[in-house]
Amino acid sequence: MKQRKKATDKPKKTQRSYFNPYETTTPKRATSRNTYQQYVALTGSDERSKKASLKRSKTASAKKPSNKNATKQRTTQKAKPVLNENLSPEQRRAKMRQKVKVTKAQRLKMRRRRQFQMVLRVTLVMCLTIGMVWGGILLKEFLTKPTISTQIVKMGTLDTSNQFEGIIFRNEKVVYSEESGNVRYVIAEGEKVKKDGTVYVLVDEKNLVTTTSEKEKVDAEIYNNAENDAAISNNQDERHNLDQEVKSHLEDFYTNRYEDSTSYIYTLRSQLDSSVTNRTNLYATEQEEKNQELVALKEQLETDLGNYQKGKAAADSGIISYRMDGNETEDVKEAIETLTYKTYNKIKRTSSISTLGQSEINSGDPIYKVILNNEWYIVTYVDPKEAEEYTEGQMYTINFDELGGQAVNFSLDSKKEEENRVQLIFKTSNQINDFLGSRTVKFSIGEKATSGLKIPKQAIVEQNLIKIPTQFCVDVEGKTTVYRKKGEITEAVELNVQYTQDDMQYIRQDLTDVNNIQVNDILVNQADGSTYQISEVETKQGVYVTNNKVAKFKEIEIVAQSDEYAIVKNTGKSQLKEMDKIISNPKSIKIDQLIDDTKIENE
Predict the structure, then answer these.
(1) pLDDT in tens, 425-437
(2) Quick check: 78 pLDDT over 50?
(3) Three-class SS state of 260
(4) Where does the RND related beta-barrel domain lie (predicted)?
(5) Mean pLDDT, range 495-505, rounded to an integer
(6) Where are the beta strands (DSSP E) in 88-161?
(7) pLDDT tens per residue, range 229-244
(8) How far apart are the C-alpha atoms of 82 and 71, rounded to whole Å?
(9) Which among 26, 95, 573, 598 is most buried, taking Cβ atoms within 10 Å?
(10) Cβ atoms < 10 Å from Cβ of 168
C-alpha cells in the first residue's frame, strides 16, 4: 500500500504578507485537532484566556439564566476565543494571514501596486536629484555672473576749466606833452604807428576853424561833382572799399556803445575823419583834369591848415592806446621778476583805468601811450598742489568770460615758488588789441562748457583692432569671410567685423584663438589672386554698446574730460550715437558677450 503523505511532507509554498510585501511566511494547514493549542501558540495568551473565561463564567452564573437559550448563549460565549488587545504587530499580522485568504488577482494587484510605488519612488528621487543639480548650476551661474550697469547716451556739456584771477603786463611806454594847446588825435585807439609817425597835433584854433570851413566847402563841391560822375568813374573798386570801411567803423561803434567810457566816440570820429579824407582825395584825383582851379584851391587850403597845426611824431613804433592806470612799464620782464605777492594784491585792489582823449592839454600831462610790441603776460598765484597741473612751455587755452568769452592760447612762460604759493606767468602774442583797456582779469584755463555725447570715463575701454582691406573680404552665406593662405592650403576664415572705415575692415585681435585672423597672416584675393600680409594693428578707445543684447565695440573720439565724465564727438571717427545703450562698468565684460549672461543692476 502506498503510504499517504502527511500534510507536513508537502512542499511549502511562500506567501507574501499583505501588510509587508517584502516579508514571506509559510501558510499552515488548519486542522480540527489542537486548535486551541495552535491559537495559544500563535497568540501566547494561555493563562490570560483562562482568567478571562473564568470571569465570564462567574458573570453568567450570577445571572442564573432559567431557559435553554440563556444556557446556549453561555456555552457559545465559552467556546468563542477572546482576542487580546496587547498583541504585538507581528502577532496581529500572523493572525490575519491565517484568517485572510489572498487570491491570485489580489496578488497581481498588490504586485502592480508595489511596482508603481517603486517607479514613483525612483521618479521622485530622480526629480529631486535633477532639481538639486539644476539649482546648484543656477546658483553658481548667479553667483559668478558679472554685474553690469547700462545707460542711454545723451548730449551734455562738461566744464573742465579752472578759475583764476590775474594781472596783465605789457611793454608800454607813456608819452607826456611838451606844450599846452588844443589837441587833435590822428591815430585811433589800437592802431599802429610807425616811428616818427604823427599821433596828434596842437592847433591854432581860430585860423584853423576858418580855413577848415573854407576847405570843407571846396571838398563838398569836389565831392558832389565826383558823385555826379560816379557812373563813369574809373575807380569803382576804390569807392566800394571806402564804403565798406565806413560801414565797418559804424558797426564797431554800435558794438561798443554800452561801454562805461566815451573813448569809442573819439575813436569813431577819428576813423570817419580819416575815411572822409581818403574819399575826398580820391575824388580830387578824379576831378583834377576837369576842375583844376578847384583842386588848386583845395591844395592851398591844405597848406594853410598845416601851418595852423603842429603835428607830434611818435618816438617809437607800436600800438597806440589812450587808456592808462599808472602801472605801465617799458621793461615787463624786470617788472615781473621783482613782483611780489603783496604788490600783486595791491595792483588788483587799486588799479583803475582812465581814458585820455581830452581836447585841451597842459604841458607835462600824459597824452597817449605806445605798446612797444605784441607780447603780453598774465601773472597769477595758485596753490602748490594746483600748480602741479601746469608745465612750463606747454600751451593752454585761457578763457576770458568777462570779455565776451574770448579764448586766447597762452604758453606757460615760467613757474616760481613764493612762500606757500606758486607764481604762474603765461605769455602770448595774440589779440593784444582786445585787452588794451584791461589790467586785472578773471579767466579760466581749459575747455569750458564743451558739448557732445556725455559718458562716464569708466565706460571707456581699449581694443587692439586689425585692419583688413575691404577688397580681400567676400560675402559667404551672409557672413564676411576672408581666405587665408597657410603653406599650400587656402582656408576660409569668418570675420567678426567691428566696423568699416576708409575701405578697411576693423576686427578685434584675439590672441587666445589661433584659428582667428592674426598679424602676419597672408590673405588671398580670390578674384585676382593678389595677396596681402596683415601688419597694421591700431589701439582704439571705445565703449561697449548693447543695443542688440550683445556687447559690441564702438570707437569714440574724446574732446574733453574731467575726473568722472568725458565728452565724445558724435561725428567723424566716433561711431557712438545719441540714444545708444552702453555698459558703464565694462571691466569684466568681453567683446561680443551676451548681456543675458550678466546681472544688470539698473534694470
Answers:
(1) 999 999 998 898 8
(2) no
(3) coil
(4) 376-445
(5) 80
(6) 147-148, 150-152, 154-158
(7) 776 677 777 877 887 8
(8) 19
(9) 598
(10) 19
